[in-house]
Amino acid sequence: MKQVRLTHLILLFSVLALVSFTKDKGKKKKPVSKTRTATVTKKIKPAVVESTEENPYYIIVDKSDYELKVYDDEGWFATYPIVFGSKDLGDKMKEGDKRTPEGQFKIIVKKHHPKWGPELLLDYPNGPSYKKFNDRIAKGVIPKNSKIGNGIAIHATRPDEEWTVDNFYNWTDGCVSVKYTEMKDLFSYIPVGTPVTIQK
């Protein structure tokens, strides 16, 4: 009888240990919302140029709010304050206008820029970008000899110029700029292939 009770107790403890070990598996913790003075706590992962992992993330850049918002399959994930190039926040018309293009894009390369470090290169210009550009030339909105431009990315400020974001100082040539410390955070978990919507 004592042997049976002992066996039952051992079995019960084994089941409880297994349940407690696997209880939190699959759950993730959402980071605290980023503010203009946020502190970043995530670790940096190495740069990659390709991603084969399943990607739960997508990014929405709101020009009028000066915010980059990250969403995953559970909803809102994080918000980063940002700045751009042109003060008028209009859609990019042509090369050299310092405007940030609007539309649907995706991240095609993760790399480290020699001046501002972490950078997520977008697939601008893509098909819809060329269509808007060609329509504007056809309507005479921009000169016929205009070029569409390229090299649009989400990238960091220089390490000692995070103040540009705090002061809404638009300094880029059309890219989206995140504070240097916070860009390290974003870069650490956003994979190549992530969809990016830029809107006003």
Can you put this structure into words, describing what you see?
This protein is of the alpha+beta class. The protein is 24% helix and 24% strand. The chain has four helices and eight strands; from the N terminus they run H-E-E-E-E-E-H-E-H-E-H-E. The protein has helices at 2-22, 127-138, 163-166, 180-189; strands at residues 58-62, 67-72, 75-83, 103-113, 117-122, 153-156, 176-178, 195-199. The protein has an eight-stranded mixed barrel with strand order 1-2-3-7-6-5-4-8. The relative contact order is 0.23.
Quick description:
The chain is of the alpha+beta class and 200 residues long. It has helices at 2-22, 127-138, 163-166, 180-189, and strands at 58-62, 67-72, 75-83, 103-113, 117-122, 153-156, 176-178, 195-199.
Provide key terms for this protein.
200 residues, alpha+beta, 8-stranded mixed barrel, 4 helices
Describe the protein's topology.
Elements: H1 2-22, E1 58-62, E2 67-72, E3 75-83, E4 103-113, E5 117-122, H2 127-138, E6 153-156, H3 163-166, E7 176-178, H4 180-189, E8 195-199
Parallel strand pairs: 1-8, 6-7
Antiparallel strand pairs: 1-2, 2-3, 3-7, 4-5, 4-8, 5-6
